[in-house]
Amino acid sequence: MRGVTGRLMLLDTASLYFRAYFGVPDSVRAPDGTPVNAVRGLLDFIDRLVKDHRPDALVACMDADWRPQWRVELIPSYKAHRVAEEHAAGPDEEEVPDTLSPQVPVIEAVLDAVGIARVGVAGYEADDVIGTFTARAEGPVDIVTGDRDLYQLVDDARGVRVLYPLKGVGTLQLTDEAVLRAKYGVDGKGYADLALLRGDPSDGLPGVPGVGEKTAAKLLAEYGDLAGILAAVEDRRSKLTPTQRRRLDEARPYLAVAPKVVRVADDVPLPEVSTALPRAPRDPAALEALAARWGLGGSLERLLTTLGA
């Protein structure tokens, strides 16, 4: 991604194709009757995003490992409820709807043939790939995700914002620090501390018992960050209630490891890829075959027209 100084758009690809799968009827099918609602829905998403936001560079970030072992070793409950099958020799298999799984390789093949950079790195989630691209970017960054965990990357000074789909991708919440402060009482840097204090059942993060979102926001407003809160636990003159002090003290083992689990990595060994927005398909013959095999029709045609404009 050397030389990317214009606007970089990073797609949390799995988040978007899950939304496409549930948002587009499964009556959208290939000529042989196979559902392609996630494939066509994602292509429509990307078309709309490029049309509306005109990025200079685009990367589809992938989950090479949706539940990295280094996170599980720190918090064993991390995403444990979403495991469909455990594998000793590699990443566990995530529970995915039966008619979505076969569409993922099609999505990958189409993105490759179009020429949209697709990056996943062994041992890391897409969030970590996004975090590393964001850290290395020289210009503004738009992160497109339905995962609020990535709010921690919002940074007005660097022009990093999250485009959070509220309804499809036609209605996006343009999330900057003002939005975060209004909704959560924290900025981007504070969101990770808020999330680990509050916990997140969808990710198997227990949080601190009795500390919900509002309490976490109040603690961060009073003491600045997690380190400040833990210092207040030690300081008998602090304004913590006896119950808060006890609960935070009892949660120290969790709070010692949670930051590494919750905060996205920014040091992933990224491969050298061209992130430039493709103006023409990288592999026209392969794309033509994919379009015919899977009946991609207008969704693909619209995207190619937008990219070529």
Which secondary structure elements does this structure contain, and how are they paired or packed?
Layout: E1 8-12, H1 13-23, H2 37-53, E2 57-61, H3 69-74, E3 83-85, E4 93-94, H4 103-114, E5 117-119, H5 126-136, E6 141-144, E7 160-167, E8 171-175, H6 177-184, H7 188-198, H8 213-223, H9 226-234, H10 242-250, H11 252-262, H12 284-294, H13 297-308
Parallel strand pairs: 1-2, 1-6, 2-5, 6-7
Antiparallel strand pairs: 3-4, 7-8
Write up what this structure looks like.
The chain is α/β, with parallel strands linked by helices and 309 residues long. Helix content is 45%, strand content 11%. The chain is built from 13 helices and eight strands. Strand 3 (83-85) and strand 4 form a beta hairpin. Helix 1 crosses helix 2 (37-53), helix 7 (188-198) crosses helix 8 and helix 7 packs across helix 11 (252-262). The radius of gyration is 21 Å and the shape is globular. The two termini are 23 Å apart.
